[in-house]
Amino acid sequence: MEPTIFDLILSKEIPADIVYEDDYILGFKDVNPQAPVHVLFIPKVRIATHNDLVEDNIDYISKMHLAVNRYAKEISEDENGYRIVMNCNSNGGQTVFHIHMHFLAGRQLQWPPG
Length: 114
Ligand code: AMP
Known about the structure:
This protein is of the alpha+beta class. The chain has one domain: 2-Layer Sandwich (HIT family, subunit A). The protein has helices spanning 5-10, 59-74, 89-92, and strands spanning 18-21, 25-29, 37-43, 82-85, 101-105. The protein has a 5-stranded antiparallel β-sheet with strand order 1-2-3-5-4, with helices on one face. Strand 1 (18-21) and strand 2 (25-29) form a beta hairpin. It starts with a helix and ends in a 9-residue tail after the last strand. The structure holds adenosine monophosphate (AMP). Adenosine monophosphate binds at residues 5, 16, 28, 30-32, 40, 87, 93-96. Adenosine monophosphate is lined by residues 5, 16, 28, 30-32, 40, 87, 93-96.
């Protein structure tokens, strides 16, 4: 598989504004933010889409949620609230094929999304 832009961020071959890191997960600011806070949380292994989650790698999803909780608390947006989004394939609007959670916060978000 060709490396995605997120693989290059993980290997530090291209820069990113990293705001969170633990043994399993990296969090960095989205270059095209859709809210005052827009951070992408990615697993440190390549899982292309939500469809590729299986028993062997599903724990990364738990780790991503824990990372989000820690970060939301750290920036004091946990009580205000936030949205987490995972896009899958074409209809979902996925453009980078390394799963990621969009963490959006800092303003009232509309529902339903477009
Ligand atoms: P998705 O459409 O769900 O696949 O989301 C991919 C996201 O990655 C988009 O919101 C992009 O703005 C973001 N993105 C693409 N390249 C970079 C980059 N080099 N650094 C940070 N965010 C990026």
